[in-house]
Amino acid sequence: MSGKGFQKFINPKVSGAKKKEQLKQEKRKIKKEREEYFDNKKREERKRKQEIRSKMSEAGGQKTEHGHPSSANRQRSSIDNNQSYKAKNIKQSEIKREEPKEQMPLNKYIAHCGICARREAAELVKEGKVTVNGKVVTEPGFKVTGSEEIKVSGKKIHLQRNLVYILLNKPKDYITSTTDPQGRKTVIDIVKFATPERVYPVGRLDRNTTGVLLLTNDGELAQKLSHPSFQVKKIYEVRLDKPLLKKDFDKILSGINLDDGFIVPDSLAYDQKDKSIVGIEIHSGRNRIVRRIFEHLGYDVRNLDRVMYANLTKKNVDRGKWRFLNEKEIRLLKFMNASFTKKSDKK
Asked: What DSSP assignment string belongs to 252-273?
């Protein structure tokens, strides 16, 4: 799509509070990496000292006058060494079990579980919505290791590991499902060799709709993005069978009554050279909503392509190809519109 009037929605400028929050997140990432580096160094040093002590404990034993162990001593030494080896392994395993885990502030732990941003996690703690081993904790800096039973609003939370986030530029003739009883091609067929983890598509695209699709095994994030209160931005390029009339353009912007209720898009624009190419921004997740808007006014949608989903675009990803999200994109997804949803919850 080449309409300049719609370009600002595809490449929005980052400024103000959002830019400040991004800088904070980058600083936190650097600090975390530095802490992990020194923690690894300490563990390696402990392991090295432990190996030296073990080797020293194995040294010794009786020897003959020529400096060599006698046959009896060799046998006895072998038995002693076996017992010493077993005792040493038991001792080392006990040390590993007793080695304290890394502690972190409670609000940081909640953020790492993917519940919300760290600042909002601190407010949840202060509001008394967090319990540690059954007791309410109201201090965000309270230290935890993750071995405790931690609940937020009564729901037990866990640190997220082996999470996968894949951006797919969906082609036509693929359904947005993990399996299909009719044997049709699914989006999972495209990414089946991307990861051993089992991922799921977030939201749906019609079989003949192309464009940006997110697949992940992060259930918490998928639930947020699918919930209407999260206000996920979606931008589509629509190719119609005929140019969009000015009166219909105005009708869509004013809102249309469909069978399942009233719908009004967030923004609408068309290509100045070809008015049959339309761009529409919408946050509704209702089934086939974009197609039904134009079909309601007598247009046939020849092609529908999602060019943006939750600030993710298909830039540098060819049709039918995929890529993993980078850390910055994942953070923006998790904390996107967090302040908006929080205000909505209070209403």
From this structure: HHH-EEETTEEE--SEEEE-SS
- Asked if 265 and 233 touch (Cβ cutoff 8 Å), the reply is no
d(CA 169, CA 312): 11
Q: Scanning the structure block, which residue is given the tokens 């749906």? A: 204
- Number of helices (H), then strands (E), belonging to the chain: the values are 11, 17
* 8 A C-beta contact, residue 276 and residue 307: no
Structure tokens belonging to residue 153: 């609003």
Give the pairing of strands 209-216 and 165-170.
antiparallel
pLDDT value at position 8? 54
Tokens of 90: 């038991």
pLDDT tops 90 at residue 97: no
**In whole angstroms, what is the distance from residue 108 CA to residue 117 CA?**
8
Do the beta carbons of residue 273 and residue 231 sit within 8 Å? no
Between 18-32, 51-65, 204-218, 299-313, the lowest mean confidence (pLDDT) is in: 51-65
Taking phi over 0 as left and psi of -120 to 50 as alpha, with beta for the rest, 302 belongs to: alpha
- Could you give the residue numbers annotated as active site? 206
**Of 39-48, 95-104, 173-182, 228-237, minimum mean pLDDT range:** 95-104
Residue 70, amino acid: S
Beta carbons within 8 Å of 136's beta carbon, 6+ residues apart? 128, 130
- Provide φ and ψ at 62, rounded to 5°: -75, 145
Distance of alpha carbon 307 from alpha carbon 234, whole angstroms: 8
Burial classification of residue 308, based on how many CB atoms lie within 10 Å of its CB (0-12 exposed, 13-18 middle, 19 or more buried): buried
Q: Which of 11, 6, 25 is nearest to 334 (CA)?
A: 25
Is 279 in a helix, a strand, or coil?
strand
- Characterise 203 by phi-psi region: left (phi > 0), alpha (psi -120 to 50), beta (else): left
